[in-house]
Design a protein that fits this description.
It comes from Glaciibacter psychrotolerans. Pfam families: SUFBD_core. The protein has 5 helices and 19 strands. By secondary structure, the protein is mostly beta strands. It folds into 2 domains: 303 residues, no CATH class; 56 residues, no CATH class. Strands 1-18-16-14-12-10-8-6-4-3 form a 10-stranded mixed beta sheet. A 9-stranded mixed beta sheet has the order 2-5-7-9-11-13-15-17-19, covered by helices on one side. It is globular. It starts with a strand and ends in a 6-residue tail after the last helix. The N terminus is likely disordered.
């Protein structure tokens, strides 16, 4: 399923000077006249659905959102009954233990809720995100400065089984360069917001790695705002956890801004791994490339990928492409893949999207087996080749090697299937 639309009106009734992507702390639902749509004269059709991705309701107050039922657009493919404590319950918003490498040009601090950077990159569009926003006591701020390349790793482990809300800021100062790796392990029941702010000409790679225990639940919303001539590479790697939902929302605000959004996921039996990716082209001459790849094996393995790209009426000269590929390894799995493209200006370089879900290519297996390779090893070679495209783009040799080994461990579960 894919949706492509061309629209000419992007009516916003409010504006927030403290938000570089045009979001407000609490925005009203779209008016009845949005895109020329009006209420029917007999009054029976008063509800006007949101027509433009950027016009979704936003608020930092959890009470502004209705209780989650699973019928909502953002929740309809999620097992909402399994994490009601994160969408409706009281959360522990206290600080927690982290470990990190000591790197010149990168600082880590806990900052108060009054920090001026909070809210700059984006605002909640759903209840779990708003619940986390209202719960955190202090935000974990990672500040990057200096033009020399650097690599920094921050690890969170064993956050516990109690429901928790958290907030993280990654602030890349103008002209800075860095690779920031966020590693997640152990147990957790976590809803969180991560804000990524790129100043002019900053070059930042953010890699979030989910290797949680089998019982862990994580609902994570990443918001990014990218300044003039800045470049963000955002990579989501999900291998562990019971339910893991990482939703990047990227706003290309500055002229010449660039995003490469990559994802790699491997779902085993009973796992639910979800990604809802939103790319918002606001500034002129911006560029985006989205590539997510996943593999599924085992009864009840489920993946969800939704890719929304909005090319706004100010985003002339945009160059955009998104794709999602899923490889099904066994029976009893399900992969949902929904690319959406919305264009509000005709003055672009190009825009496109693609999606595919399929099983092994029997001809590839036959070719490898005809060369003396066993069927199990042939299957592993095919899957490894399929996922390696993402791993090789990470840019951290030690992490790439570790992820290759983790994929090998996952693939051993396909033997005999």
């Amino acid at each position: 399923m894919s949706v492509a639309s061309v629209t000419t009106n992007n009516d916003k009734s409010t504006n927030n000077a403290n938000s570089t992507n045009g979001d407000t702390a609490s925005e009203a639902m779209p008016t009845a006249g949005q895109h020329g749509i009006k209420e029917h004269s007999d009054g029976r059709f008063g509800f006007i659905p949101v027509q433009t991705r950027s016009d979704r309701f936003k608020s930092v107050n959890v009470a502004d959102f209705e209780a989650v039922t699973g019928r909502e657009l953002v929740w309809k493919l999620s097992p909402v009954a399994k994490f009601t404590d994160l969408t409706a319950g009281t959360l522990d918003g206290s600080t927690y233990d982290v470990s990190s490498t000591d790197v010149a040009g990168v600082s880590v601090d806990w900052v108060g809720r009054d920090d001026a950077r909070i809210g700059l990159a984006g605002l909640p569009e759903e209840r779990a995100s708003a619940n986390a926003w209202g719960a955190f006591e202090k935000a974990l701020a990672i500040t990057v400065s200096g033009e020399e390349p650097k690599e920094f790793t921050l690890t969170r482990a064993n956050l516990g089984s109690a429901p928790r809300g958290a907030h993280t800021i990654i602030d890349a100062k103008p002209f800075s360069q860095a690779v920031v790796i966020l590693e997640n392990t152990g147990d957790a029941r976590l809803t969180e917001n991560v804000e990524i702010i790129l100043g002019e000409s900053a070059n930042l790679t953010v890699i979030t790695v989910q290797e949680w225990d089998d019982t862990a639940v994580q609902l994570s919303n990443h918001f990014a705002t990218i300044g003039r001539d800045a470049r963000l590479k955002h990579i989501v790697v999900t291998l562990g956890g019971s339910i893991v939902r990482v939703n990047p929302s990227i706003h290309l605000v500055g002229s010449g801004s660039d995003i490469e959004a990559l994802g790699l996921y491997f779902a085993d039996a009973g796992q639910h791994l979800e990604q809802q990716v939103y790319i918002n082209h606001v500034g002129p001459h911006s560029r985006s490339r989205v590539t997510y790849k996943g593999a599924l094996q085992g009864q009840g393995a489920r993946t969800v990928w939704i890719g929304d790209v909005l090319i706004g009426n100010t985003a002339t000269g945009t160059d955009s492409y998104e794709q999602n590929r899923n490889l099904v390894l066994t029976e009893g799995t399900r992969a949902d893949s929904v690319p959406n493209l919305e264009i509000e200006t005709g003055d672009i370089l190009g825009a496109g999207h693609a999606s595919a879900t399929g099983r092994f290519d029997d001809e590839q297996l036959f070719y490898l087996q005809s060369r003396g390779i066993s069927e199990d090893e042939a299957r592993r070679l095919v899957v490894r080749g399929f996922l390696t495209e993402i791993v090789q783009k990470i840019g951290s040799a030690p992490l790439e090697a570790r992820l290759q080994e983790a994929i090998e461990t996952e693939l051993r579960g396909t033997d005999g299937e």
